[in-house]
Amino acid sequence: MNRIIRKQYFSPKVVEFVVEAPLIARSRRAGHFVIVKVGEKGERIPLTIAQSDPEKGTITIVVQSVGVSSEKLCNLNEGDYITDLVGPLGKATHIENYGTVVCAGGGVGIAPMLPIIEAMKKAGNRVISVLAARNKDLVILEEQVAQYSDEVIVMTDDGSSGQKGLVTDGVESVIKREKVDLCVTIGPAIMMKFVSLLTKKYDIPTMSSLNTIMVDGTGMCGACRVTVDGKTKFVCVDGPEFDAHKVDFDEMLMRLKAYS
Amino acid sequence: MTREEYMKQRRSEPWRDELRRSIKAKERGERARVHMNELDPEFRSHELKAEVNQGLTKEQAVAEASRCLDCGNPTCVTGCPVEINIPTFIKNIERGDFLEASRTLKETSALPAVCGRVCPQEKQCEAQCIYIQKMGKEPVAIGYLERFAADYERLNGIIPEPETPKSNGIKVAVVGSGPAGLSFAGDMAKRGYDITVFEALHEIGGVLKYGIPEFRLPNDIVDFELDVLNKIGVKFIKNCIVGKTISHEDLLNEGFKGIFVASGAGLPNFMNIPGENLIGVMSANEFLTRVNLMDASNPESDTPVQKGKSVAIIGAGNTAMDAVRTARRLGAERAMVVYRRSDEEMPARAEEVKHAKEEGIEFLTLHNPIRYEGDANGRLQRMLLQKMELGEPDASGRRKPVPIEGATEWIDVDEVIVSVGVSPNPLIPSTFSGLDVTKWGTIVINQDTMETDLPGVYAGGDIVRGGATVILAMGDGRQAAAAMDSSLSKVN
Ligand SMILES: Cc1cc2nc3c(=O)[nH]c(=O)nc-3n(C[C@H](O)[C@H](O)[C@H](O)COP(=O)(O)OP(=O)(O)OC[C@H]3O[C@@H](n4cnc5c(N)ncnc54)[C@H](O)[C@@H]3O)c2cc1C
Ligand SMILES: Cc1cc2nc3c(=O)[nH]c(=O)nc-3n(C[C@H](O)[C@H](O)[C@H](O)COP(=O)(O)OP(=O)(O)OC[C@H]3O[C@@H](n4cnc5c(N)ncnc54)[C@H](O)[C@@H]3O)c2cc1C
Ligand code: SF4
Ligand code: SF4
Ligand code: FES
């Protein structure tokens, strides 16, 4: 189990792995994540399940190398085994026909967004995906996203792909143009905060998938806690998705710096 | 034969009669209780993994065993939740047959080396010893002797290879690998069942591994017990969450005829006071998991852990004592226990409190935190404590702490570890439809059979009791094994 079947670079720092995990492939739904540990002294880190193939018994994860543990994982090759892999964790995304859904994904947040885009489309929604990244190289999965989107808007900080601007610029252009029933946002906490502020202004219900620091991922430690609507929630079991307008993003941003 | 008759029979063996008469009861009663050999407090408060209690020597054990009066009506046994045949094992130590002592323990307890170390003896067996009940003296050191006998067997390598039982081919699943799950697995495997234990984490052992630190319960001891289970054919599947990775239906489809749920009470409670989400405030579970399961204080480990200089632990149970003593070992210059009641109500084992005090831990009893404050970066700086006094007894019979109006105090801290209890893990109750659950989230069982409302699904340990003890969890595992076996052997 946990053998890496395929490895593909999306950019020098972003890697896609297809991993053997038959039980997880069978039971997971859009929005679920896994906890991965590389090596005996490795750290447990959470990663969203981007895709799965129950027949082949595989799951797909997309990892951005940002620190020690994600780098260790990115250094593994086809045929290697991931020491520990557990899941599916968290609550699945609530999917229904809302009407028009804007999916705003930033950086590596595009990977966890993909299964949601697919499920939203299959549920009959009009899906407009806004993908944002610093530059062209960091825009990942554009083709796969396009497959399930009615429209894809790409935003880059430097204009090297799509339009020059922030994710919020892309989302706002859609809101100004047509009625949006739901916004889903996944990406760096700071990005989700600003998307949330924007959609709040327009009163558009918004769901965000939070990426807090975790240890066990099963509700045992509380490392992942955030304040939602004034109450403490554990992202790994109560989430990872929450009503963005109720999330205390400033506290979350602060807590992400606990070990840096 | 009833248990009483069996105990009487063993007591009337000729050697035992002779041994009893060899020293006068009065003389036994005058002997002083043995002292445990311990590491020096200053030394050990920097040693994360060195076990504090060093065990008794053979001579000490025999001498302590000679204090036991081998009572005709041994009240100590009534204090033990699994009714270990205490005088029989102790008299075997006195006559020097340490292996027979260990064998006696194993008739009832699956993990004597563990229980001898972590049982709250002063509230259980030792509290009922005639020495304390009738003679006003210190009780026989039953826990120390239990540990001695179990360790002797393990360390002297003369353990017969466990017999591999004849398989009956019936598949049984266990959810969780804590003491309840392990003792159940052992008993069922010995009866010939095909046992698979599913564990959510990447290590087997439950709280014995991720919670209780090595300075109190070395991993070797747990690993030894796991090895025995491996040898008798128990299968362990790590990183598998029942209810998530595989469902109840999956288990049934795979032909499991019985399921024992021992998923523990792992969810930490917080107090919901201002500042509790500051960086530096964490649950005892998080702190202990990082240090014990993830080995975070080892430079080779990738998992970080904060090493506070001024650390407060909120609460005074075993978990709190483990956390505060761990913080001390990681370098805390000031390490305190903040507890809203008084010394007497502290739920922790007496020995842990004593050891903590020796290690320089401060006890701020009758204090309760009401607010935390941090710096501009959200890092904890100080806590506000409310002073308390004891009022009328509450429903639990303990005197209720009430705030003394206006009496508050700020204390500088850079780390606070919250240890105010745990709740049952909701995963199984929420994914096994049809289970009856109390308002506290514990699973309801039939007390005689340990079976839940779902036929074939049994439960025990902390998921049924809320936070309890190792010995109770272990006892539940054994009782459930006996009940499930009798039910399955009727059907098959
Ligand atoms: C539910 C969930 C799903 C996730 N899905 C994915 C995914 O599909 N792909 C992916 O690449 N990452 C994902 N993440 C984030 C990923 O877990 C972190 O990037 C990883 O834990 C960082 O570990 P590290 O040791 O490599 O970096 P560290 O050395 O721990 O950190 C390096 C830098 O990253 C920041 N950081 C640390 N933890 C996180 C975090 N949880 N989120 C954001 N920034 C963080 C730190 O502040 C620091 O600046 C997810 C997180 C959660 C909670
Ligand atoms: C720090 C600490 C110190 C303690 N000190 C003492 C002491 O000195 N003396 C004493 O008697 N007691 C002590 N206790 C209490 C004692 O450890 C517990 O009462 C006992 O461990 C309960 O055993 P259990 O088998 O019910 O559950 P646990 O030991 O909690 O084991 C449950 C296991 O199930 C796993 N699990 C949960 N859900 C699932 C699932 N869905 N699928 C698969 N696996 C799952 C968990 O990961 C865990 O490994 C202490 C507890 C703690 C936390
Ligand atoms: S198991 Fe615990 S309570 Fe029972 S005799 Fe041993 S130490 Fe005492
Ligand atoms: S009550 Fe005390 S003295 Fe009597 S048998 Fe038990 S341990 Fe021995
Ligand atoms: S990661 Fe431990 S409780 Fe969420």
Automatic annotation (TrEMBL), chain A:
FAD binds at V62, V63, Q64. Keywords: 2Fe-2S, FAD, Flavoprotein, Iron, Iron-sulfur, Metal-binding. GO terms for biological process: pyrimidine nucleotide biosynthetic process. It comes from the Bacteria. PROSITE patterns: FAD_FR (PS51384). Its cofactor is FAD; [2Fe-2S] cluster. Binds 1 FAD per subunit. Binds 1 [2Fe-2S] cluster per subunit. Residues 1-95 form the FAD-binding FR-type domain. GO terms for molecular function: 2 iron, 2 sulfur cluster binding; flavin adenine dinucleotide binding; metal ion binding; oxidoreductase activity. [2Fe-2S] cluster binds at C221, C224, C236. It holds the Pfam family DHODB_Fe-S_bind. InterPro entries: Cyt_c3_hydrogenase_gsu, Dihydroorotate_DH_Fe-S-bd, FAD-bd_FR_type, FNR_nucleotide-bd, OxRdtase_FAD/NAD-bd, PyrK_electron_transfer, Riboflavin_synthase-like_b-brl. Gene3D superfamilies: Nucleotide-binding domain of ferredoxin-NADP reductase (FNR) module (3.40.50.80), Translation factors (2.40.30.10). This is Ferredoxin--NADP+ reductase.
From TrEMBL, chain B:
This is Glutamate synthase (NADPH/NADH) small chain. It comes from Dysgonomonas macrotermitis. Residues 59-92 form the 4Fe-4S ferredoxin-type domain. One of its GO terms (molecular function) is iron-sulfur cluster binding. Pfam families: Fer4_20, Pyr_redox_2. NCBIfam families: gltA (TIGR01316). Gene3D superfamilies: Alpha-helical ferredoxin (1.10.1060.10), FAD/NAD(P)-binding domain (3.50.50.60). InterPro entries: 4Fe4S_Fe-S-bd, DPD_II, FAD/NAD-bd_sf, FAD/NAD-binding_dom, Helical_ferredxn, SudA-like.
